[in-house]
Every structure is written in C-alpha cells, then in structure tokens.
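Reminder to self: tokens first, then the designed residues, so the page reads top to bottom the way the pipeline ran.
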C-alpha cells in the first residue's frame, strides 16, 4: 500500500510542458485582423452634395485666382523688361550725344575757317600764304576730331535730290539745268552726329521754269 501511494504521487507531479500549456492565454476570444478583401469592401464616408459642390466652387475659384496672378506676374515682368531696355537706350543715347551742344558750337568755328580758306589771295604774299597754310592744317585737325566723335558732313552737290530730312531750303529758283526739287546751290554744310541730324545743310532748290 505504501508503494502504491508513492506511484500515484509521482504521476500527479506536473511536467514543464503541461505548465506552459496551462499558462498560455486563450486566443479564442482575440479578434482577428480584417483581410484585404474585407477592408476593400468597407465604404468611405460620402460628403453631402451641397458640401461637394462648395468644394468644387472653391477649387475653381482658386484656379481662376492663380491664372489671374500668373497673368499679372507676366505683365509686370514684361513691363520691367521694357523699362530696363528703355533705360539702357537712354543711357547709350546720353553717352553718344553728350557732345551735341559742344559740337554745334564748333561748327561755327569750322565754317569761319573754311570761308577764310576760300578767299582768293593775290600771289606773292608770303605772310598770307602761311596764314592759309595754318588755316588748312587747323581744318584738317578739326576734320580728324569730328571723325573721331562720329560727326559727319552733309554736303549736297548741285543736282542732288532735295532731302527734307537733311536739307533746309532757303529759297527756290527757276533753272533749266537742274531738275525740279533738286539742289541748285549749297550755301552751308550740314552735319550728322552719330547718324542723327545736328544741323541741316542750307540749300537753294531748283524749280521748273515757267511755261516749261
């Protein structure tokens, strides 16, 4: 009897495996995660029609405002570019025509020298010859300076077409030699400064003879 009791007690002792099984939580009540198929079938909440239309109107208003802002930006950019170009042109013109007033005053000096050169002097006057030589050298020096600063002559010849952009008609005379509206005689040279008229040439213009 004593041996049987020992055997019974030995079999009733819990094993490590049975203890672990007893301590494991019961997973039967744990909720299972939804499968992708069941999640896909879940319906998203829908907005009321009034709210949806309101959102559409707001989006359209923002698009319109964005387009207007872009248009304003492009216009402002173009205007800024135009202002920059005009400023560059004005600065370039200021540099190019800075000597305009000075050049206009110098033309009178050259006119006087050229008139002195055109005076007929009797032969045998050494003093006058030297004076004319000095005048000639001065005119050549002025011509080189004028060329350096883009100051060019407008010197129409007899028979040239009258150009109202560069010539100023002082009078008109009948002529059988020169065609109508052509230069009969140049009274004074004109000048251009960098291609722009500084002073027109003074001319007499021919007109057709009466009864011709």
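Designed residues (212 positions):
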């Amino acid at each position: 009897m004593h041996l049987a009791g020992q055997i019974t007690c030995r079999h009733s002792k819990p094993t490590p495996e049975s203890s672990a099984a007893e301590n494991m939580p019961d997973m039967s009540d744990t909720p299972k995660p939804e499968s992708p198929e069941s999640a896909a079938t879940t319906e998203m909440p829908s907005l009321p029609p009034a709210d949806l239309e309101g959102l559409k109107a707001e989006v359209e208003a923002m698009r319109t405002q964005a387009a207007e802002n872009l248009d304003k930006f492009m216009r402002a950019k173009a205007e800024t570019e135009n202002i920059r170009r005009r400023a560059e042109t004005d600065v370039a013109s200021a540099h190019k025509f800075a000597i305009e007033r000075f050049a206009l005053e110098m033309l009178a000096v050259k006119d006087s020298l050229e008139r002195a050169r055109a005076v007929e002097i009797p032969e045998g006057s050494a003093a006058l010859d030297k004076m004319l030589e000095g005048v000639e050298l001065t005119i050549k020096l002025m011509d080189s300076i004028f060329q350096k600063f883009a100051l060019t002559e407008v010197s129409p010849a007899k028979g040239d077409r009258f150009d109202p952009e560069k010539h100023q008609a002082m009078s008109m005379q009948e002529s059988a030699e020169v065609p109508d509206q052509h230069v009969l005689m140049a009274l004074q040279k004109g000048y251009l400064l960098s291609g722009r008229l500084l002073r027109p040439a003074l001319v007499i213009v021919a007109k057709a003879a009466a009864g011709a």
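Strands lie at 151-154, 167-174, 183-188, 190-193, 196-199, 201-207.
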